[in-house]
Design a protein that fits this description.
Layout (H helix, E strand, L loop, with lengths): L1 H4 L5 H13 L8 H9 L7 H10 L5 H15 L4 H7 L6 H10 L1
Pfam families: DUF3368
InterPro entries: PIN-like_prokaryotic
């Protein structure tokens, strides 16, 4: 089945989509073609920022750690995400601010 996706995806992404489709799994991807393919096949699809949010919500990591990871991804790896562009317009955004908002409710 992965061979079907090889025209659009790299081998690792193709295999991930094929396995997720077979076992009703989840694909974690930020690549546009991989996200499009998974979405077309109704496969659950969090991206990197979505994972950080879930980790903070489930107290697997602290909000401060999530902020640190995101900053490192941006600064060291050139991480780019449409969510990042939206977030960058809000100068005060941080995972800690999300956590603080939840605590006040």
């Amino acid at each position: 089945m992965a061979a079907t996706f090889l025209e659009r995806l790299n081998p690792g992404e193709a295999q991930a989509v094929a396995v997720a489709e077979t076992v009703d799994g989840t694909v974690i991807a930020d690549d546009g073609d991989a996200r499009t393919t998974a979405t077309q096949r109704d496969i659950r699809l969090p991206g990197s920022i979505g994972l950080l949010v879930r980790f903070v919500e489930n107290t697997l990591i602290s909000a401060a750690s999530a902020d640190t990871y995101l900053k490192r991804w941006i600064d060291e790896a050139g991480f780019h995400s449409p969510a990042r562009e939206s977030v960058s317009r809000t100068e005060t955004f941080s995972f800690q601010s999300l956590q603080n908002d939840d605590a006040s409710q």
